[in-house]
Every structure is written in C-alpha cells, then in structure tokens.
C-alpha cells in the first residue's frame, strides 16, 4: 500500500512539471493552431537563466520571475523573427512544425555553447531529509514544486477566465477570423499568448532545475512529455491538456511497478502514438465528441 | 587523405538516405518524420545479425532493408487516417517509440552502451569501403531516378498533389503510398547497415530527431522532388561544417556549431519559402 | 430497359445535420439528368455517396441493376464512374500531358512493369481527348499555370477520357465567363449525342432547362420534384423554392 502511495506522490511531482510545460504549450497551440515544439527548449532557457540569476545571489523568487520574464521576451523575439513571418506568408502547418523542430535544435545547441553539455546543478535549496506521509517520502522541494505548479495553473485559470485579455485569448483560440472581425487586436493577442506561454514554460524550467541537474537536451524530452500529456487530455483545451499531463505523470510512475524504469519513455511515446492514431483529439474528444465534430 | 575519403564516404551514404527521403516527401507528399528510425532499424539489424550471429554480408544487407520496409508498412497502415501536420506528428511520435525501444531493449541492442560492429574483411579498407558506397549510391540513384520518371512516378505525383482527384481517376492512393514508403524505407534500411559498418559502432543517439534535421536540411536545400538537387545539397550540407574544423575550434564548440548552422539554414530556407536549388514543388 | 442508375432511400447525416434524407430517383442511359437545388441542399453530398467517397447511412445505389456501395471509391472510379469536383481539382505540379496520361491509363499501377516499360508516346490519344473539350495548349504546361477556365476544361477532359459508364459533373460552369459557359454547354450536348450518360449538378436553372432530359430538384436534402424541364418549369412550387431564398 505504502508502495502505491509513494508512486502516486512521484506521479504528482512528475505530473506537476509536465502540466506546467503542457499549459504553456497548449495555450500557444490554441491561439496559433500549430505545434510549437521549440517550447521544450524555451523551458530549458528558463531553467538556465534561473541558474545564472541565482548565481548572482538574487533572491530566489526574483531570480525565478526574472528568468521567466527574460525567457518570455527572448521567445517573443524569436517569434517575431520566425513564426510571425510564416504567418504573413500563410505558410502551412507542416512548414511551421519543421521550423519549430529547427528552432528546438537551435536553442538546444545555443544553450550547449553557453553552458556546456554536461549537467548543471542549481543548488537553490539545501538538500534536506524527506518528510513522511503515510509511509511515503516527499522532500520539501517536491512539495514546493507541486504547490508552485498548482498556484501557477490557478493563476492561469484566473487570467483566462476573468480578465479581458484572457477572454480575448479564448476568442482568438475559438475562431481566429471571427475574433478579428469583432474588433479584437488579434495579432497582439497572439503575441501576448506566446509570451505568457513561454513565461509559464520558463517557470516550468525553474521547477525542473529545483529537482534535477540541467542538461540542454532535456528540453526535447520535456516537450515530448508535455505534448503527450496535451494530446492525451485533449490538445484543443488548455485544462484538458493539464489534466492529461498529470495523468501521464501518474501512468509513468505506476508503470515502474510493472516494468523496468527505463520503459517510462517507451510508455509515454507509445501512448502519444496510439492517441494520435486512434483519437487525435484526446480524452476530451472521446468524452465530448459532439462538441468537437462540426 | 583518410579524412577526405571518410568524408566522401559519408557524403555517399547521406546522399542515398536523403534521396530516399525525397521519394516519400517530395515525390509522394508523405511527411515521414520517422525516416531516421528506418536508418536505425537497418543499422541495428546489421550490427546484430552480422557481428553477433555471423550471417553473411549480403543476407544482412537485404534483411536490414526488409525489416525497415516491413516496419514502414506497419507505420503507413497505422497512420492511414492522418494527413498534413497530424501525419507528421504521428510519424514523429513513432520515431520516438522506435528510439525508446532501441534504448531500452538492452539485451538485444546494448541500450545506451551501444554495439560494436565488425566490418567484413573485403571492406575493411577505407578505399574499398568507399568504392562499395559509390557503387550502392549509383545503383540506388539509378533505381530512384527510373521510378520517378516512369508512369509510376507520375502516379506518386498525383497522390502528392491531390489525393482525392487521384482516387477519382481510379488510382489506389493508399497502395501507392505504401509502395513509395516501403521503397524509401528499404533503401534507407540498407544504408543503415552500411552506416553501421562505416562507424563500426551504433548508439541510439545516432538515430534521434537531430539527425532528421540534417536530412531534412539536405532535402529542403536541394529542393523537393528533385534528385539532382538532393545530390548537390548533400555535398553542400556535409561540407559546410568542415570549414569549422579549419578554424581550429575545440570539438565542444564544433558539435553544437554544426547543428546551429543546420538549423539556421533550414529556418532561413523555410522563411524565404524558397524551393531550394532545383526544387520542383512547394512545401505546404 | 432498366435505368442505368437507381437510387433508393439514400440518407446521410453529418452530426446533427441531415444532409440527405430518403432520396430516391433514377437516371436513364444516354440522357442528361440534372440535379438542381439551392446551396447546401445536398447535391455534392449525393455525388460523394454515388462515388463512394462518403459512406452512406442507409439506402441503395444500383448501377446497371447491380449494387455498388460495397466498392471503394477508387475501384468504382476505375470501373464505371468519372467525376469532376465542385472545387475544381487539378494536380498542381503535373503537366497537362501527365494529367491526361493518368486519365487514359488503366493498368499503370504496377511498379515493376512501369519500371521496365519504355516510355510510350500517346500524344495522339491525349490530343484527341483534349479536342473533345477544345482545350488547345502546350502539353508540357504545369497545372499550376493554367487559368481557371482551362482547369475547368482539363478536369472535364480527364473525366471524359477516363473509362466510365456514367459521368458525374459537379457545377461544370460555376464561376466561368458567358463565353466559356456556352462552350461547355455545347460540349455537354455533343457528349449527349455521343450516347454519354451524364449526371449534372448545377444551380443555374436556365442552363439546366436547355440541356437536361430530366431534372431532379433537391431542397434541404429531399427530392421535392422530379420531371422533364417542361414539367419543372410549370411547377410554381419549385420556382418558389428557388426565388423565395
Ligand atoms: N464532409 C462534410 N462534413 C460535414 N458536413 C458536410 C460535409 N459535406 C457537406 N456537409 C453539409 O451537408 C450539407 C449539404 O452540402 P452539399 O452537399 O455540399 O450541398 P450542395 O452541393 O447542394 O451545395 C451542407 O449543410 C453542408 O454543410
Ligand atoms: Mg455542391
């Protein structure tokens, strides 16, 4: 029994990080309708910048927020240089996907030039003993990760539901053309959503850095996981993507009970493939089919 | 001398991999982002069957191609309902599945330790190896050129341009796609075997997404649906990073710089929406 | 002799939208049967069901008194149906010659045969087929470079050249200038005298009245009338459906 609780807690921790990655990714997907694979690298930029700011002995919260701000700004710059140009040329989604893979590779390797390929450890918190809950162990850092991600997702929910900007983002996500007709500054809303998505992603990178050493190529895995979570839940909906990501965290950690731990990635990659083939709209489309089909 | 020979051999191998990628992407319109997996399957089949089971060279080559072909058959069947970027994502996720299996099936593939590959005696020498690669490249290029110029090639073009119209003309587009991708995967699988012999070692990370970007860059620079363009682009793309070598940079910088260069080139070509050197069709 | 095409109680629904409901009609050999009706009345859906591009919910389709709905679209196309699409489709990067080769050839699927075959010159057959529609153009021109009118003619030429028993034409004169419209009307008349069986979708009444042997009027997925041009013209009912919108 304790055994299971431990795996559930581990699932919650993993899921929290995936959910933060997926939230930013899915927000961008919904306002832009293309798969921004480079988001994984953006997440890592957040983690590394946090590392740098932290070394400057900034306050940890300031360092995290500044890392997210700067990452968001950099991402927006890249957006203007690449995706915005593609939009102007009405390039198709396949081109955008290829471009985003190229961007992922580009950012990965720039990070590698700056920080090296070896692991970079951020010692934001002293290593402490874990606390025991019903026989399962959880460290204070892990509690912080879970709490921060919940707060972050809560704030995103408030932003999307109660603010003017959030409503505009939802309108753009709902119907791109129509949003323009009813007088929404569509392109600026898209830019803003890209910034916010990257900002959240960067904070995901900060969370990653609290729990493990940073490696540039980790971003590729994180985006595949975030993407998988989003596809499992339903990429067309930000909340569904988040739920899917928590689910993925649980599935991965529970699978370890039955399979060698290396198979974690096989499980999630396999799930991604199966969902894309059988239900590209994810669980959301399975349960709310009528709403999705036009 | 050894350096030049090895570089030319590498160009020969990559040229064929890129040509067969173009058969699917440029000539048939199948966005197959798991092309590198077919290379991996061939490489591992060769590594295992030749080095561990001691099967003969010819048999190993054919089996490497066949395994890749069969897996391609499965993939295109599984993805038959997907189009456009969803097909790209489906094949991409399949690539991740294959990659993770190769990493995890340690007893067979050696996992992250990789596998040592013995070379057959007759190609142990660099020159002989190079001659074999040139021979294979000529044969495969001839076969591909013949295919794309034949009426069958026109059928593939029809499927690429408008699948619905092709079907309305009585063409079995699904079967045509199957044939195109199986040929593409077969050739790539064989070249995977050659690559394994060339490197004398295989590792899962040789066959990850990043390598796809190299192939994609070659094909997009050379131009979709142009074999000649792909051949020229292979030289350009593989020679450009060699310049970095002469600037005497440490290898920790050369590695990332090479990839940065490729991704920037790919981005630029996509951005100016060019058809590349000799491209005949646009990417949509 | 039984009608070449018999459709009974054909139905198709998209989500909550009943695009076709219990549609029954028949078409005679060597006649032009026109299907008219306002936008969204289900005309193209009917063609898609006939051609098996869409799967019907229920109903039967008989061609030459044999049921055909278990055949997949490309086989049906190969054996008996030629069609054009409302959104004029061509192969962007193929030449006119290649378009016509695709339409004329029947057994070119085999990779091996095609690999060893010599290039044949079938320009005569191609020019012959293009003459039918009066498209005179360099055979090496790519689809992307053709004008809208030329693509309309090319798709028509492909449909005619391809082996078929019935021609399904979806709005062949939509969006073309009056001159070309007359030209296409003439082509249709010529086809009819050559004994072709044609199903013609068109929502312009005048065009249809002068050409068709029989007219079927669809509205909201139902056949609201069926008859000769004269009968249709006499029916106030139909005109109201038309003009009332
Ligand atoms: N593939 C489809 N999916 C969903 N709805 C469709 C589809 N095709 C047609 N429809 C709907 O079916 C109805 C009939 O369309 P259609 O047959 O194209 O009409 P027409 O050709 O007479 O203008 C319309 O309401 C249209 O929106
Ligand atoms: Mg229509």
Short description:
The complex is a heterotrimer of chains A (294), B (284) and C (245). Chain A is mainly α. Chain A has 14 helices and 2 strands; from the N terminus they run H-H-H-H-H-E-E-H-H-H-H-H-H-H-H-H.
Uncertain runs of chain A:
none
State the end-to-end distance of chain A: 46 Å
Distance between the termini of chain C: 39 Å
Number of domains of chain A: 1
Q: Name the shape of chain C in a single word.
A: globular
C-alpha-based Rg of chain A, rounded: 19 Å
* Main structural class of chain C: alpha/beta
Gyration radius of chain C, rounded: 19 Å
How much helix, percentage-wise, in residues of chain A? over 70%
What do the pLDDT scores of chain C average to? 90
Query: Beta fraction of the residues of chain A?
Result: under 5%
- Listing every helix as H and every strand as E from the N terminus to the C terminus, the arrangement of chain C reads EEEHEEHEHHHHEHEHEEHH
Question: Could you give the order of the helices and strands of chain A?
Answer: HHHHHEEHHHHHHHHH
Q: Which range best describes the helical content of chain C: under 10%, 10-25%, 25-40%, 40-55%, 55-70% or over 70%?
A: 25-40%
Looking at CATH, which topology of chain A would you report?
A: ABC transporter involved in vitamin B12 uptake, BtuC
Structural write-up:
The complex is a heterotrimer of chains A (294), B (284) and C (245). By secondary structure, chain A is mainly α. Chain A has one domain (2-291): ABC transporter involved in vitamin B12 uptake, BtuC (Orthogonal Bundle), CATH 1.10.3470. In chain A, 78% of the residues lie in helices and 2% in strands. Chain A has a two-stranded antiparallel sheet. In chain A, helix 1 (2-32) packs parallel to helix 6, helix 1 packs antiparallel against helix 11 and helix 2 (39-55) crosses helix 10. Chain A is globular, with a radius of gyration of 19 Å. Helix content of chain B is 76%, strand content 1%. With 245 residues, chain C is of the alpha/beta class. Chain C has helices spanning 43-50, 73-79, 96-104, 111-116, 123-133, 148-161, 178-193, 205-211, 229-234, 236-243, and strands at residues 5-14, 17-27, 32-36, 58-63, 66-67, 81-83, 166-170, 197-201, 214-219, 222-227. In chain C, strand 1 (5-14) and strand 2 form a beta hairpin. Chain C is globular and about 60 Å long. The termini of chain C are far apart. Chains in contact: A-B, B-C. The interface between A and B is large, with 42 and 45 residues. Bound molecules: adenosine-5'-diphosphate (ADP) and magnesium ion (MG). Adenosine-5'-diphosphate binds next to strand 2 and helix 1 of chain C.
């Amino acid at each position: 029994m304790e055994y299971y609780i431990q795996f559930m807690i581990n699932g919650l921790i993993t899921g929290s990080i995936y959910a933060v990655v997926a939230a930013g990714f899915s927000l961008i997907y919904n306002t832009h309708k293309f798969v921004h694979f480079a988001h994984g690298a953006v997440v890592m930029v957040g983690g590394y910048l946090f590392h740098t700011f932290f070394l400057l002995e900034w306050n940890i919260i300031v360092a995290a927020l500044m890392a997210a701000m700067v990452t968001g700004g950099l991402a927006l710059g890249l957006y203007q240089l690449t995706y915005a140009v593609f939009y102007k040329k009405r390039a198709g989604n396949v081109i955008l996907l290829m471009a985003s893979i190229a961007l992922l590779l580009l950012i990965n390797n720039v990070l590698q030039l700056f920080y090296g390929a070896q692991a970079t450890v951020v010692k934001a918190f002293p290593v402490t003993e874990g606390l025991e809950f019903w026989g399962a162990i959880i460290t204070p850092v892990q509690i912080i990760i879970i709490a921060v991600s919940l707060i972050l997702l809560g704030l995103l929910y408030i932003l999307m539901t109660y603010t003017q900007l959030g409503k505009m983002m939802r309108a753009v996500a709902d119907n791109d053309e129509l949003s323009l007709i009813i007088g929404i500054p569509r392109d600026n809303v898209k830019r803003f959503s890209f910034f916010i998505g990257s900002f959240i992603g960067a904070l995901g990178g900060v969370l990653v850095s609290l729990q493990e050493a940073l490696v540039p190529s980790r971003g590729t895995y994180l985006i595949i996981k975030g993407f998988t979570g989003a596809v499992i839940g339903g990429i067309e909906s930000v909340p569904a993507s988040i739920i899917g990501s928590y689910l993925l965290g649980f599935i991965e950690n529970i699978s370890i009970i039955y399979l060698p731990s290396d198979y974690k990635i096989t499980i999630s990659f396999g799930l991604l493939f199966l969902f894309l083939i059988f239900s590209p709209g994810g669980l959301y489309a399975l349960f709310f089919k009528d709403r999705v089909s036009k | 001398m050894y350096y030049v020979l090895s570089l030319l051999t590498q160009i020969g191998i990559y040229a064929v991999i890129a040509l067969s990628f173009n058969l699917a992407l440029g000539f048939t319109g199948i966005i197959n982002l798991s092309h590198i997996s077919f290379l991996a399957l061939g490489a591992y089949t060769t590594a295992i069957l030749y080095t561990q089971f001691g099967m003969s060279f010819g048999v190993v080559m054919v089996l490497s191609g066949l395994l890749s072909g069969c897996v391609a058959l499965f993939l295109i069947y599984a993805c038959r309902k997907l189009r456009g970027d969803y097909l790209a994502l489906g094949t991409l996720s399949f690539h991740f599945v294959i990659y993770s299996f190769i990493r995890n099936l340690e007893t067979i593939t050696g996992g992250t330790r990789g596998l040592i590959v013995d070379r057959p005696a007759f190609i142990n020498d660099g020159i002989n190896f190079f001659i074999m690669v040139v021979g294979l490249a000529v044969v495969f290029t001839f076969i591909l050129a013949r295919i794309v110029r034949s009426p069958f090639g026109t059928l593939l073009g029809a499927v690429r341009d408008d699948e619905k119209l092709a079907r309305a003309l009585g063409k079995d587009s699904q079967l045509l796609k199957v044939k195109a991708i199986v040929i593409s995967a077969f050739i790539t699988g064989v070249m995977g075997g050659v690559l394994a012999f060339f490197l004398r070692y295989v590792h899962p990370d040789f066959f990850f997404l990043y390598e796809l970007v190299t192939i994609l860059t070659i094909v997009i620079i050379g131009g979709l649906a142009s074999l000649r363009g792909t051949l020229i682009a292979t030289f350009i793309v593989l020679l450009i990073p060699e310049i970095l070598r002469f600037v005497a940079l440490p290898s920790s910088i050369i590695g990332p710089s090479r990839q940065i260069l490729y991704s920037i080139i790919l981005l630029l070509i996509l951005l100016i929406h060019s058809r590349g050197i000799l491209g005949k069709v646009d990417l949509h | 002799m039984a009608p070449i095409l018999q459709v009974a109680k054909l139905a198709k629904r998209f989500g909550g939208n009943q695009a076709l409901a219990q549609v029954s009609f028949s078409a005679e050999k060597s006649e032009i049967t026109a299907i008219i009706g306002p936008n969204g009345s289900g005309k193209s859906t009917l063609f898609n069901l006939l051609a098996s591009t869409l799967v019907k919910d229920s109903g039967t389709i008989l061609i030459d008194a044999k049921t055909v709905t278990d055949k997949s679209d490309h086989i049906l196309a190969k054996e008996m149906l030629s069609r054009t699409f409302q959104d004029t489709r061509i192969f962007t990067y193929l030449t006119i010659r290649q378009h016509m080769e695709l339409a004329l050839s029947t057994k070119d699927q085999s990779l091996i045969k095609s690999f060893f075959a010599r290039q044949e010159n079938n320009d005569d057959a191609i020019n012959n087929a293009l003459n039918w529609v009066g498209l005179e153009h360099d055979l090496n021109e790519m689809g992307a470079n053709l004008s809208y009118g030329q693509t309309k003619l090319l798709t028509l030429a492909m449909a005619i050249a391809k082996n078929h028993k019935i021609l399904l034409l979806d709005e062949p004169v939509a969006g073309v200038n009056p001159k070309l419209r007359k030209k296409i009307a003439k082509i249709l008349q010529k086809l009819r005298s050559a004994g072709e069986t044609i199903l013609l979708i068109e929502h312009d009444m005048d065009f249809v009245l002068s050409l068709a042997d029989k007219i079927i009027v669809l509205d909201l997925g139902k056949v609201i009338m069926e008859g000769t041009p004269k009968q249709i013209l006499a029916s106030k009912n139909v005109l109201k459906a038309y003009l009332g919108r």
